[in-house]
Structures are given as C-alpha cells and as structure tokens.
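Supplementary material to the annual report.
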Amino acid sequence: MFRRTRRIALISALAATAVILTACTGSPQPVATSTGKPDADASLAVGLVLEPTNLDIRHTSGAALEQILIDNIYEGLVTRTQDNKIEPRLASEYEVSDDGLTYTFTLNEGITFHSGTALTAADVVASYEAVRTDATLQGNADFAAVASITSPDPTTVEIVLTAPNQSFLFALTGPAGLVFQTGDTTDLKTAENGTGPFTLTRWNKGSSITFARFDTYWGEPAGVAEVEFQYVPDFTAGVNNALDGGVQVLTAVDPNLASQLEDSGDFTLTTGRTTDKATLAFNNAKAPLDDVRVREALRLAIDHEGLVEAVGAGTTLFGPIPELDPGYEDLSDVVSYDPERAKALLAEAGQKDLELTLTIPSFYGTTVPKVLISDFAKVGVTLEVDSVEFPAWLEDVYGNHDYDLSFVLHVEPRDVGNFANPEYYFGYDNAEVQRLYAQALAEVDPDKSAELLAEAARLISEDHAADWLYNGATITAVSPAVTGFPKDSINSRINLAGVTVLSEK
Amino acid sequence: MIRYLLVRGALLIAGLLVSSVLIFLTLRVFPGDVAQLIAGTQASPAQVEALREALGLNQPLIAQYADWIGGIFRGDLGTSLLTGASVGEELFLKSQVTVPLGMMALTIALLIAVPFGILAAVLRGRRGGTALSVGAQALAAVPVVWAGMMLVVVFSVWLGWLPPQGFPRTGWSTPGKAVEALLLPALTIGIVEGAMLMRFVRSATLQAAGQDFVRTAAAKGLTRTRALIQHGIPAVGLSIITVLGLQVAGIIVGSVVIEQLFTLPGIGRMLVADVGTRDLIKVQSELLVLTGFVLIVGFLVDLSHHLIDPRQREAA
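Predicted assembly:
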C-alpha cells in the first residue's frame, strides 16, 4: 500500500514537472502523452452537428443516419470506400455476368447478427425482397429493375436484373443493401440488430448516441471499446466542447472556427473531399429561367472563386458530377466570371430589372445568399431571399416546383440522374441528356459508362441547367492520440473499423 | 358549492375540447409533411404516397382527429411519427428541465415582486417609490431575449460565473451543475415577469390601503405603514394568486423562447423542433398538455377564490 502511494506521488510530481516545463517553452505543440500503442479498452468521443431523427435506416432517409450506422452497426453485401469505390463487405467476393444482368455474391463465413443468430443467404434474400416489394423502404426505386433474388446455396446470393444497370451495385452500398435478420421484431426506430463491429448501447435523444464493440464480430474487431457520438447543433458550442476536452474528434468544423482548434495545439485538422454539391437550382420549366440566356447570365454573374472564399472551404465545381463520382471532368471552361457578358445576355433576352426569388432552407445560413445578392446586383438582377423551414422547402420547391431559384446542398453521390429526370424539381428536360444517361446506366463496362456520364454532364452544364456554386469540403479536427479516423466523405460515412486511440502514459 | 364545481368543471372540459379542435386545425395550415421528410429528396412521389398512407396521413381530417382525441381519452398521448417514441414519456423527460425552470423563474419573480411591490406602495408619492415604479415599468417592457443576452454578457462573458448555454449531459444526477445551467434562464424570465408582477402588487397594496379595515387599524394607533403590512397585505394575497395563474401561462410562453436561447433540452425546444419536422401528432399532444395545464391552473385559481372569498360564494 505504501509503495503504491509513493509511486503515485512520484508520477504526479513527474507529470507536474512535465506540465511546467512545457508551459515554459510556450510551444503550441501538443504534449506527447501517447506511447504510440493502441489502447483496446479506449473509448472515443466524436462530436457531430446533425443528429438523426430516428434510427430506422430502412424507412428514413438522411445522411446523419447513414453516417454512423452503415458499416458500424449494419452492413450490406458491398460497401464503399472513402473515395466512393465499391468493395465487398458481407460478401467475400462478387461477380457480375458479362451481360450485366446477373450478380452473384458469395457470403463471408461466421457472420452473426447482434442477437447471436447466424446470418445466412436467406436473410439477404428476405431483406432485399422487402426493399423490392415495399415502396416505403429506402431504395425501393433502385430495385425497380430487379427480376429475382435467390440463394442457390446457403452462402450464395444471386440477383438478376431485367436490364443492365451501372448504378445498381452502388445502390447496394446504401440503405437498400443492408441485411436484416429474417422475422426480427426489433423496433428499428430506437434499437438495432445489425451485423457490424459495433452495437448500439444507448441513445440519449438530443444529446448522444453510444456504440460498444461487438466482441463476436465476424471480421477484424473494432480498435476501440466504445464510441460516443455527441451531438452539438451549435458550431461554436461544439468547438468549445472540443477545446474543453469533451471530444477527441470534431467533425463538420465551421471553417471560420477551424483556426481556434488548430491554434490550441490539441487537434490536427484534416480537410476531406465530399460529394456535396452546393446547387443553385434554376426552375428550368418556368419563365424567365426557361430561357437559356438568362440561366447563362446568372452563372456568368457569380464569382465562384469569391464564393468559395466566403464559404471558407470547398472547391469550385462547374458541372453536376463531383471529383469522387464516375464521369467527373473539369468543366471550368464552360462558364467563367464575366459580369459584362452577363449583362449583355440579359439585355439580349429582353430582361430589364429582373427580379428573382431564392428559396433556401433556413439552416443554410446567410453567407451564400449574401454573396449571390451582391453578385446579381452587379448585373442588374434583384435577388429576394425567402428563407423557409425544410418541410416547407420540400413541399413548395421539391414537391410543387413553385420557385425561381433554390439553394440546397445535394449530398448524395452519383445523383446526376436527377438532371435526366424531367419530373425532378429542376424541371430540366433534355432528350439528349436523358438518352446519354440511360445509355450510361445500361453500359456494362464501367469506364465506358463513366465516359457517357461525362458527356451528359458537359451537356447539362452547357445548358446551364443549374449552377454548382461549390463542391463542399469537410473539416475534421482530430486529436493526435486518435489514429485511423477517416478523412474523406465522412458526412456520409464514418467507418470506425480502423480507428484506434493511443494509450496515455 | 357542488353546483359551482360541476359548472366550472364542465367549462374546463369544454375549454379543452375547443382548444383541441383549434390546435388540430391550425397545425394543418403548415406546408410540408413528415412523410416527405422521412422519404427524402431521392424518393419518387409514389414512394412518398405509400409512406403517407402507412403513416395514416392521407386519412380524412375528421378521422385523424378522432384517432388522436380517442387515444387521449384512453390516456395515450400518441407516438411520434418520426421517432416512434411515446409522446407522454418524452414530455415527462423534457419536463424535468422545463418544470424546475418554471418554478425557479416563478420564485425569482415573487422574490422581486412582493417586497419591491409593497415597498413601492409604501413609498408612493416619494422619490424612491416613483423610481421603483418607473424601473418596473421599464423592466417589464424588456424583451425576454434581450434580457437573456444581457445576463449572459454579464454573468458568463464578463464574470465567468455561470455557463452561457446548455444543460449538463448528466442531467439531474449532477444537481449542482443542473441548477447552475438553469440559473441564468430562470433569472431572465424571473426578472421580466417579476417586474410585471411588481406593478400589480403595488397597485393591489394601494387598493388595500384605501380599504376601511386598514383605515380602522390606523385609527387604532398603528402607523399607516404597519397597518398596511399587518392588515392590508393578507388581503392582497388573494388577487396575487389570480395574477400568478396568468403568470404561469406567461412563463410557459417565455420558456419556449428562453430554452431556444440557452439551448436547454426542455419542452419549449422540443416543441419548436417538432414543428420544424412536422411531427404533428406530437406537437398536437404537447400543445394540448400545455393548454390543459394553463386551463387547470385557471380552474384551481377560480376554485380557491370561491373557497376563500365568502362574497363570491354567495354570488354563486
């Protein structure tokens, strides 16, 4: 007992000296507290902004839900990497037939649900059959071309399509592809029964969600014992919480507050790529935006570089396909910043003193509208901003197409198809784009498919079907004790499998 | 008395029914619905329609109303369309922030209003009394949001004594921290409501001072002030109860604003969030519970009047 006390006293004294010494140097460098060995018992606290409304990933859409649940709690046959490439997950391998119609998946061995029941091919068939037949399930539309889902033997699943579909496999990396236990009665809104490396231990609504390592996980077990996602909707409060040591990782850092975290020396910042397209939608179906000259003029009037600077993170984007998606091509040659040409085009279109309304969901703030108001004013266009709640936006803009201009961050990857759908709220109807897109989907060779998409994207941009204000980037602050935290695409997936926390000395 | 209770009770129930219809109908003017929100921006109209059907959102209004109110009669406040959680349970959970906040605010309001109100009455006509009245008038006119921000600037930013926002993650298992978190918001509501209440206490005290029994007491040799305090104040109590009943409503309304400002996870913030997500069944039940609470307070105030004041009993 005595020895132990003395040892603690000695350690405390050493620690105190270390603190004093580092304080003397005045260096902003973090104190080296890590021995460099991952601590398997560690618990990781991650700060996030957007809390899911419920946990029912089968019925509810939303990045906040997919972000934490897919790969950590639930798994599908395939998943996607940080740079949006498809890789097998529950399946050890998969094969697509030459005609692009038959997908054959071989299941990994020893997979069990968190309930303890073993996963079989029958569970996959039942899960996917539900998506195919139940219109209220997420991804139902992606399964429209599925002819049959069968399991020739307990470790094989075969899916046959009626027509080749390049986006089908990618759809399986989303909620539609997740596998649930057949006949399970878990209420998915509040609880789970997945197969992933973590189980859900607690959801304190409005505050935090806690995961624990699933010790009998079929694959490589998780590197940390526990993960707590803390939801702080206020950016400043989130940064304060991080600086107080409340979290070791803070995601979605507001670019304007990032320097505070970096200056503290307790965090390293990473800037990750995303497929977030900050889309300024034009109502192509309604005057005056049905006139391509007006649309081009508006795009010419926007100083994209300046806008990216005002937003504080991200890159310019001049077409509907971001860098992380197939078919990306730099389209900056299509439109440049040219207010004079914009004015001339507006005059040519017979638009004098044009007044337009921008409908924007209120949670996007005022930075973007302010820049647009000022840019448009320089070419004689008056922009009125109508900031509405998201459900109102969904009804008026998305549902009823009742708007001139709209701003939404479209986060879904590979969604260029929205421009090939005249029913979508963009109201953009170009037969050539629709033909190219359909051809790209039906193309069996991925490279050729990407080429067709790139061709469609160029057409869409040349038609000025919308403006892509910027391609979002996501800033993450990570403590030096944390390794392996993903960097790209983390607003749609935070795969925690490889994350470890180094033990402190 | 029993007759009075029956009549007044019937009025209470009628009031609740009318409010339930009003709440139900007014919420229907909002654009957008929860089905669209759940389905997201990649869903086809057919999918949204299927979801709407599954959630019972495309039933006729009268059926939806009957469904909701029928559940309430069975003591079931319904479940959230979005989260599937029981509304009753969540209300109970959130009331653990809002109720203590309201009680603290009410206490602060009374601590300000009663002594200063009486003081203002006693000092009437003198400089101190005028200063108190003018001060109360000014404070009562201050918007709650502004008062809250000023308090944050002083107590959090300058002095660093109290947290500027938030509620401890640990909740009431760390009572000290929980009280600390509620202190500034309670002060904000308490000061503004207290100033309003103080003006009322002052005029009620003055009115009592003009009553015969106070004058009689003064004639018996008590000083005017002592006569007022010993005999006048108790008579004021009754009317204060009435006004307090009204203040409760004020504090509930105030808590919606204040919980937003201080990001407190209470009923007010839940209400705002649920309106934002169009979780209408939940909003309906929450509003009805709050309305019911105010109506019941009013009922109790009336009842206590009836019991205490003999003149009212005869009138009935």
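The CA atoms of residues 292 and 321 of chain A lie 20 Å apart.
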